[in-house]
Design goal:
- The protein is of the alpha/beta class.
- The chain is about 45% helix and about 15% strand.
- The chain is built from 19 helices and 16 strands.
- A five-stranded mixed beta sheet has the order 2-7-6-5-4. A five-stranded mixed beta sheet has the order 13-14-12-15-16.
- Helix 14 crosses helix 15.
Length: about 525
Amino acid sequence: MNEVVTLADVLAPPELELKLVCGGGNATTTIVRGAHFSEILDPQIWLEEEWIMMTSGVEMYRDPARQRQLVRDLVTMNASALGYCTGIKTKAVPPALLDEAATLGLPLFDVPYHVPVRHVMTHVHRLVLGTDDVLLQRAIALTDYLLTGFDGPMPPSLVPETRIVVTLRQMLGLSVDHVDVQGSPVDPEDGGAVELSSVVNGVSDQGSTHLRVHGEDVLAVPCRVGARLTGWLVVHLPSRTDGHRYVLAAAEAAAMLIAVAALARRRSTDNLEALGQHLMAHLLRQPARRPRTGAGDLNALVGSPSMAVLRELGFTTSDPIRAIVADDLDLAAHRPDDLARVLRAAGIPHAWAVEHDTLVAAVQCSSEVALALTERFGVPAGIGGPVAPQDLPASVRQAQFALRMLRSEHHHARPGSAPRLGALDFAGLPPAALAAEQIRDVLGDDAVDDFLAPLVEQPLLLDAVVEFLRCDQDVAAAAQRLHLHPNSFRYRLERAAGVLGAPIRRPSTLASLYLACAASNLL
């Protein structure tokens, strides 16, 4: 590799639309050994000879004197060229900048607003690495050093980005903060980064920027891959000015590795969530059979596509799963990924899907843990019983029933009482409620519907019976809910007893009415 890169090579790709606006007849033969984007006016700190400086003029667009001084500094240090990004601060190259470059013979090219400067930088870096084997070896060695420690054990709490930041600090001997796109510290233990939120305000995310914050020199390096910005590295610079180019190269290499690690982890999480939703769609299409909870039923799935996906999501064959159902969601305020985030943080294997504003999740944990985590989600929810994965619809139905019981208890609570909020576990329901959920499986739909048919045909009588059950057989309270006189309400109960052929208060009649009404979603 002994070829050289020229400015003609940099300007060649038509898709970049780079336009040389001044520089003389030999401008395109100028040798290029690198490129750096900067908004500061001290290029000698960051640039080697025969490098391109790129800028959008943030610090000088209103100051012709500083524009001319920048050109003189670049010529003095034998810079290759100046690339000006138009459309950000000025619509065209500032006149003073253009005049001084033309006078001193500094090649100057225009970068259109719609062309991301990172594409130009990537193009230059690719050209230079392809013609300089020593530089390529240095780049490989730098990357290899930043990845030191990845071949050994890491604490579960240590994400790859943190490891890279720690290595960079050791390498530079400087303080380095990793902040997100808002400038908040990514690592909660990075207390010093809290005040650096002002760093990212107004700083270009296209390239590294040197600026002063609270009287201290810092280098803000965007962590990005292509158009995806994940945060910033903020390097606290020493007072001396030598060695900054080394700091810049190391920080930019670390920033790119951090962005790759962050995006890979996010993409992995997104892929798992999509995989879980695909699995849920498959499991929810299964018939709602009588639940089976034995380990044998779980092991029966071993080798099946469903079990392969369950394993990928962290589920095991040693424990059953259970359903969580929350419906009538305000999806803007209670996003499904909020619940997923809570489950991930707790290390709970899970999968979820949303159908018609109803969130259905499958989890593998105890009912106590499921209740605690669901209540943190902030909406009423029902918890189903433990089942084998292929019987998830049965647990979903139980969770839906528990949710109806929770809402009924809340809606029909007596004045002054403390209604139950949060979540309700199907297994915690009284035996009568459990029997009501299963009565249609035992007797069949026709038997339940036939029993209620005489009341369904006379809605006023049905309403009276339902309110009588909801109010714990309190005639006065039930009559008040229906806006009736107690005597009128008693008359309706007598008529209901007549069509049923049995006294309402007889225990067997009350039990039958409760089971049938609960199974028919009337309570």
